[in-house]
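Practice problem. Given the sequence and the SMILES for 2-acetamido-2-deoxy-beta-D-glucopyranose, write out the predicted structure.
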Amino acid sequence: MEMDVPPKMLASLTMTILMTMMATSMTLAADAAVLKGQARALLIWKDSLDNQSHQALHSWGNTSTPCNWRGISCDTGVQRHQHWPVISGISLRGMRLRGALESLNFSALRTLTRLDLSHNLLTGSIPPSIEVLRELHALLLQGNQIRGSIPLGLGNLTKLYSLMLHENELSGEIPSQIGNMSSLVTLNLSSNHLVGHIPCEIGT
Ligand SMILES: *[C@@H]1O[C@H](CO)[C@@H](O)[C@H](O)[C@H]1NC(C)=O
Ligand SMILES: *[C@@H]1O[C@H](CO)[C@@H](O)[C@H](O)[C@H]1NC(C)=O
Ligand SMILES: *[C@@H]1O[C@H](CO)[C@@H](O)[C@H](O)[C@H]1NC(C)=O
Ligand SMILES: *[C@@H]1O[C@H](CO)[C@@H](O)[C@H](O)[C@H]1NC(C)=O
Ligand SMILES: *[C@@H]1O[C@H](CO)[C@@H](O)[C@H](O)[C@H]1NC(C)=O
Ligand SMILES: *[C@@H]1O[C@H](CO)[C@@H](O)[C@H](O)[C@H]1NC(C)=O
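Answer key:
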């Protein structure tokens, strides 16, 4: 059976297809720019680490896409309607990485769902900017030499289900904002220099 499509309808259909294609290519360009910014943030952090860490991360920078660099995983983020891969995970457990945690530009890494830098030689503090990692499910920083207090902004990470900060040099009190992490299932703050009491908000 043949369908007669009126010319007017055909024109509007063509227009719709063209506009969809334009919108798609604009989204692709934007996503590609996100990935590029993420690669840049990783390389800046690598530069800030010591020489031995550079060897561990020698694959970083050797291809234009960070998705096949050691410890990096990417995702096309179906629920965010992304068409281009973005970084979803950093898993660099026990690689003797030495440097400051806060040299990592978290603003560029908002698509992270997993950040595992556990059992390294990282110093510095957990920067307040970590609160921009709204997609984060797991934050594993245990077994480092991280100092300073637990940032209040962690309370904004409502998708976080695993927070492992044990075996560090964290000080100060446990913030009551910890009760705002409504998805939290696993928490370990053991072996730090925390003082004060356990906030009652933890009951939420
Ligand atoms: C690190 O590597 C650079 C060049 O690769 C070298 O000049 C520098 O001396 C090294 N530093 C240490 C502490 O090994
Ligand atoms: C790039 O990294 C891969 C994986 O680590 C390695 O096998 C390869 O030799 C590297 N290529 C260059 C040109 O450094
Ligand atoms: C951190 O990343 C953001 C987003 O990619 C960028 O706008 C900003 O300039 C970066 N900051 C630094 C210090 O590189
Ligand atoms: C984190 O949550 C607090 C309390 O709702 C809010 O004031 C703050 O703006 C949030 N931070 C960001 C970066 O959205
Ligand atoms: C954080 O939790 C407190 C109660 O513990 C609540 O009053 C406050 O509205 C929550 N803030 C956010 C941003 O959910
Ligand atoms: C929490 O960390 C301590 C070490 O500081 C460890 O002994 C303990 O097994 C950990 N607990 C969990 C549930 O991971």
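Check your answer against the key. The radius of gyration is 22 Å.
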